[in-house]
Design goal:
Strand content: under 5%
Number of strands: 0
Shape: elongated
Radius of gyration: 30 Å
Order of helices and strands: HHHHHHHHHHHHHHHHHHHHHHHHHHH
Structural class: mainly alpha
Helix content: 55-70%
Largest sheet: none
């Protein structure tokens, strides 16, 4: 509360806002029904400029549509309107509720939105999140200041993401100013404190991605800026194809770009663009460090092991090359233990005892004997003994005859054999 609109709407403003409201509801309908998977949308998307009263040419923005001709008349009394809303929420099927709610909002006077929003309890918001978002979106697009002020006063967290995102798309400057005044920690706090600002920026990005990046660049500290921009990219990436590439164009050299590249790598792998992904990382040492070369090559080997293995030869730095080898070996040992260990032993710098021990744990029951033979090559006698005893105990519990034959064929210390057979792994009862 405590927020006074710059202009109090009079009778003329009421007519204009009702017209804008109809266009706003049309835009909300397109987004909402699109989210339900409909191929045919009842209205085309409406731009932010089209939502201003001056841009709407008359009061018949939705006249002539099938829905507006068949909609039930809106009750005049507030109590009857509240009852109609309850009936709508009780309808079966999300599409049916959506159409009925859009008819309702289409006819709702702007001044009635607070009463309607107040009718919905927190339990209603939980049971009908999509319908709640549609109410808030329609209200925000016609009277953003009051809509956002209402959510600030009535919602436990002090804001609604849908309302702030809509406002960010319609009027970025006003929305950002409001958030900074009411949630000052949004610009200088941690990730949790930034949620109101991020909600606004999500809406800003729908209109002007460059402005969204510029807004987040105002957060103090390069690392905090980078975290915020990366969070925006991850949030928008799945819903808006091409967002990551567009962000890379907008963001200059520095921590933010490096983190974007590191977070983009798995997506590029999934999309079959592994070579491009690796080129981006090769050109940005901070991105490689952020993502972790071992982790990168482990992910890469899951989707394209041959290309990942071939890329190892192009890494000039010995330490990075060893990390890459370890990543590929960890990623492939379960399905191809012989190939994974062959690659490991070709790179002595990568074949440390810890890596061997971890890879052996990934060998399946069919390959446990082969894995134990690799354990025998470990340099640290204490760790070698520990891994041998553990894997033999596991094998002895599942396939005791195979484990015994393997121990008979190899020079295994008596104490190791005794420990494995004394405490074999016993699989749980089915």
């Amino acid at each position: 509360g405590g927020i006074v609109p710059a202009v109090a709407p009079g009778a003329g403003a009421q007519i204009a806002m009702t017209t804008a409201q109809k266009s706003a509801v049309a835009a909300a309908a397109a987004v909402f029904l699109g989210s339900l998977g409909y191929a045919v949308r009842p209205y085309p998307p409406v731009s932010a400029a089209q939502l201003s009263p001056a841009a709407v040419p008359g009061t018949a923005a939705l006249a002539g549509t099938p829905r507006s001709r068949t909609a039930r008349p809106l009750p005049a009394a507030p109590g009857d309107r509240q009852q109609r809303l309850r009936e709508i929420l009780g309808l079966s099927g999300p599409a049916r509720r959506a159409r009925a709610l859009l008819d309702f909002l289409d006819q709702l006077p702007v001044a009635a939105f607070p009463d309607i929003a107040g009718t919905l309890t927190p339990q209603d918001w939980t049971r009908h999140p999509s319908e709640w978002q549609l109410v808030v979106s329609a209200w925000t697009r016609v009277d953003p200041l009051r809509a956002v002020a209402w959510t600030h006063e009535h919602l436990e967290q002090g804001f609604d993401r849908t309302a702030l995102s809509c406002w960010g798309e319609i009027d970025p400057d006003a929305a950002i100013d409001w958030v900074i005044r009411h949630f000052p920690a949004s610009t200088d706090g941690g990730a949790g404190s930034r949620q109101p600002l991020m909600a606004v920026v999500r809406g800003v990005a729908a209109r002007d991605l460059g402005l969204a990046v510029e807004t987040l660049s105002g957060i103090p500290g390069e690392q905090e800026q980078a975290a915020a921009i990366t969070a925006l990219a991850m949030e928008l990436g799945d819903s808006r194809p091409g967002t990551m590439d567009a962000l890379l164009e907008e963001v200059g050299e520095g921590p933010a770009r490096s983190r974007l590249i590191a977070s983009y790598f798995p997506t590029l792998l999934r999309d079959g663009e592994s070579e491009r992904a690796w080129k981006l990382l090769l050109a940005d040492p901070q991105a490689r460090e952020s993502a972790g070369v071992g982790h990168i090559f482990r992910l890469w080997s899951d989707t394209d092991p041959d290309t990942a293995t071939a890329a190892i030869a192009g890494i000039p730095d010995d330490a990075l090359r060893d990390e890459a080898v370890q990543g590929v070996c960890h990623g492939t040992v379960n399905r191809d233990p012989r190939g994974a260990f062959a690659l490991l032993w070709q790179h002595p710098g990568a074949a440390d005892d810890g890596t061997v021990a971890a890879m052996v744990q990934g060998c399946t029951i069919e390959n446990v004997g082969f894995g134990l033979e690799q354990v025998l090559r470990m340099k640290d006698p204490t760790l070698r003994q520990e891994v041998l005893a553990g894997r033999l105990a596991w094998w002895s519990g599942l396939r005791p005859d195979d484990a015994r034959r393997w121990m008979d064929d190899h020079d295994i210390p008596a104490e190791t054999r005794e420990e494995a057979q004394r405490q074999p792994y016993l699989p749980p009862e089915p």
